[in-house]
């Protein structure tokens, strides 16, 4: 407002100055007596005043009434200046007036003052009115334009959207012949469709890649977790789920065992990648945890592998070797003792001593043989299945157990009921031979019947072969049945004459059948006999 009023002031001053200039020109040309005539038609309000303040001419025609103007500011100030402008209250009109005064020369060359004035309040009001009117006018115009466009655009948008909707709902054929003026919809639709097809392809490709990746990480037998910098799971595969708390995705709450969390914490404080083997008491299992730092230590790739089996099998291997050495040591000590004694032994005992030495050597031989069979069964885990004639199997078995059958004066019988007419069965010959040989031998060895007898039955079923090996031997006590498959386990040595046994035979049998994913069942009655039923898949 202040800026505006200074603008008015400037403008009004310019108007008054222009008027004063015109009046000045006329005063120079005309004498005082001609003023009345000359200024008759001039609308401007002005006075011509002598330097001492006397009003010579007043455009309002009441100079006779006007007092001396010498004390008015606009006259007084002219003593030092050529022109003066002021806005003040008029004492005659009691209203705010703008005065412009300047010194000029009259016709006779004397200095006179020309004072032009205008009602400032009125002028100001007029200007203000114009301004208010303009502001209101433009605001209304603006509002109308805005309102019109808003409605127009809204309606236009709605119309277009409805068209798009009907277009999308129409079938493919209709779309292709869409109205001429709506060609843009068709174009738009084609672009969207292309873009959508591209997107679908990308999504499908990503989904496939994700699936492959998930399968790969699930295929790894370890648990794999990707932790972000806040130790939240970003990725986790579905292995070793028993280590994790369901639906908790923070490392601290999500992992059940403090032992694992501690390793992760250690890795966090470690500069490099970190590995540690741990034992979880609650699970009685060993784990290998490896932690790799990714993306400048912001993410951690944690793999947890259950290494219990390899740890245990290493332990079993160690025990096995120590057992073998122990088993070999006894006959070896015997042999050594008897050989020393033999040097000074009387003739009558020599034969006896030599027999004992021979028996112990036989025992050592058996241990080594079984040990070799055992390692063979363990190392040849992959089955070598092929067709084999049942006559060949029977012949081979009879040859291998011939010694014990004769020694015991026993009877060995085979009974094969197979589906194929050409008398072939499909088995891992070498391994099944080892199983049957062991079971048949045991049937005669642990047998004190008058006529020891072993019957081997084979039934071919739809998906399996069933071998039933039945003897009329000593039988096995119920509470020992589970133990006989343990390595080096032998039932009370005194009950049999077989001092050469190693306690490894049945554990070899079990190892082979386990590998075959088959099963062994035992039914036994003391002093009546034992039935081993072995089922293997085809
Ligand atoms: P080994 O015959 O060398 O002692 P095995 O592992 O073959 O070792 O057998 C373990 C034990 O199981 C034997 O010591 C024996 O007491 C018992 N056993 C095995 N087969 C029979 C059987 N058919 N009848 C009675 N006892 C048996």
TrEMBL record:
InterPro entries: BphY/WalK/GraS-like (IPR050351), HATPase_C_sf (IPR036890), HATPase_dom (IPR003594), His_kinase_dom (IPR005467), HisK_dim/P_dom (IPR003661), HisK_dim/P_sf (IPR036097), Sig_transdc_His_kin-like_C (IPR004358). Keywords: Kinase, Membrane, Phosphoprotein, Transferase, Transmembrane, Transmembrane helix, Two-component regulatory system. One of its GO terms (molecular function) is phosphoprotein phosphatase activity. One of its GO terms (biological process) is cellular response to phosphate starvation. Its EC number is 2.7.13.3. SUPFAM superfamilies: ATPase domain of HSP90 chaperone/DNA topoisomerase II/histidine kinase, Homodimeric domain of signal transducing histidine kinase. One of its GO terms (cellular component) is plasma membrane. It catalyses: ATP + protein L-histidine = ADP + protein N-phospho-L-histidine. Gene3D superfamilies: 1.10.287.130, Histidine kinase-like ATPase, C-terminal domain (3.30.565.10). The chain crosses the membrane at residues 130-149. It holds the Pfam family HisKA. PANTHER family: PHOSPHATE REGULON SENSOR PROTEIN PHOR. This is histidine kinase. It comes from Cetobacterium ceti.
């Amino acid at each position: 407002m202040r800026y505006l009023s200074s603008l008015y002031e400037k403008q009004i001053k310019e108007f008054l100055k222009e008027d004063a200039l015109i009046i000045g020109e006329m005063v120079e040309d005309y004498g005082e007596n001609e003023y009345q005539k000359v200024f008759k038609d001039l609308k401007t309000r002005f006075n011509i005043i002598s330097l001492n303040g006397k009003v010579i001419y007043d455009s309002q025609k009441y100079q006779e009434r006007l007092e001396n103007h010498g004390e008015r500011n606009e006259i007084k100030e002219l003593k030092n200046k050529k022109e003066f402008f002021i806005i003040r209250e008029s004492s005659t009109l009691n209203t705010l007036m703008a005065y412009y005064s300047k010194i000029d020369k009259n016709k006779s060359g004397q200095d006179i003052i020309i004072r032009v004035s205008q009602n400032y309040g009125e002028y100001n009001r007029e200007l203000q009115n114009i301004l208010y009117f303009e502001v209101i006018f433009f605001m209304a115009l603006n509002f109308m334009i805005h309102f019109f466009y808003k409605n127009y655009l809204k309606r236009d948008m709605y119309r277009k959207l409805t068209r798009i909707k009907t277009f999308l709902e129409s079938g493919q054929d209709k779309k292709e012949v869409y109205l001429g003026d709506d060609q843009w919809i068709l174009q738009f639709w084609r672009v969207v469709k292309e873009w959508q097809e591209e997107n679908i392809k990308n999504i499908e490709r990503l989904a496939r890649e994700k699936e492959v990746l998930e399968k790969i990480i699930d295929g790894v037998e370890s648990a794999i977790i990707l932790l972000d910098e806040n130790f939240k799971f970003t990725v986790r595969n579905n292995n070793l789920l028993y280590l994790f708390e369901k639906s908790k995705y923070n490392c601290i709450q999500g992992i059940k065992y403090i032992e694992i969390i501690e390793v992760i914490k250690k890795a966090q404080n470690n500069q490099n990648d970190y590995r540690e083997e741990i034992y979880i008491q609650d699970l009685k299992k060993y784990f290998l945890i490896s932690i790799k730092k990714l993306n400048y230590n912001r993410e951690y790739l944690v793999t947890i592998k259950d290494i219990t089996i390899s740890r245990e099998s290493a332990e079993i291997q160690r025990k096995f070797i120590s057992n073998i050495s122990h088993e070999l040591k006894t006959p070896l000590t015997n042999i050594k003792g008897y050989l020393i004694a033999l040097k000074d032994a009387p003739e009558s005992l020599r034969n006896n001593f030599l027999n004992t030495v021979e028996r112990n050597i036989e025992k050592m031989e058996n241990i080594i043989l079984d040990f070799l069979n055992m390692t063979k069964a363990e190392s040849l885990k992959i089955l070598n299945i092929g067709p084999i004639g049942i006559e060949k199997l029977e012949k081979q078995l009879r040859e291998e157990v011939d010694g014990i059958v004769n020694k015991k004066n026993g009877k060995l019988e085979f009974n094969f009921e197979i589906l194929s007419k050409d008398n072939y069965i499909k088995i891992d010959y070498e391994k099944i031979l080892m199983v049957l040989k062991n079971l048949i031998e045991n049937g005669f060895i642990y047998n004190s019947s008058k006529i020891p007898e072993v019957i081997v039955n084979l039934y071919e079923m739809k998906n399996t072969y069933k071998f039933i090996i039945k003897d009329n031997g000593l039988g096995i006590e119920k509470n020992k049945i589970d133990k006989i498959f343990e390595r080096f386990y032998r039932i009370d040595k005194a009950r049999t004459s077989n001092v050469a046994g190693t306690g490894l035979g049945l554990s070899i049998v079990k190892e082979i059948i386990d590998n075959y994913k088959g099963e062994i069942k035992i039914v036994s009655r003391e002093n009546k006999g034992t039935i081993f039923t072995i089922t293997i898949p085809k």
